Amino acid sequence: MSFVVPDSCSLPTAEQPLRVAEFESLFAGAVRSVDRIDPRHVRFEMAGPPGLEATVRDLAERENGCCDFFTFTVTGDREQATEVVTLDVEVPANYTDVLDGLAGLAA
Prior knowledge:
Elements (H helix, E strand, L loop, with lengths): L15 H15 E8 L2 E8 L3 H15 L4 E9 L2 E9 L5 H11 L1
Antiparallel strand pairs: 1-2, 2-4, 3-4
Helix pairs in contact: 1-2
């Protein structure tokens, strides 16, 4: 499934592919697992170098600025020189297709 930007997104159209690419890049380099908690909730487990948690928080905050229907919860921990980050993403029931697309970016 490909990611489709919802009509309610306030990010300028020209910037939307760049934001999708940011998520693809983050997920490609860091995702360990993607767990569907329920139809409205996905958990991404990630690991990477120091600074990963700050990168995830920054991206989640910027995304929430244009798509305020997302609820992002970022939890970080450290395993020696590796940061381990959990990103929980929740949406209202009418945005589950957008959540499906976001999860698909990590696949």
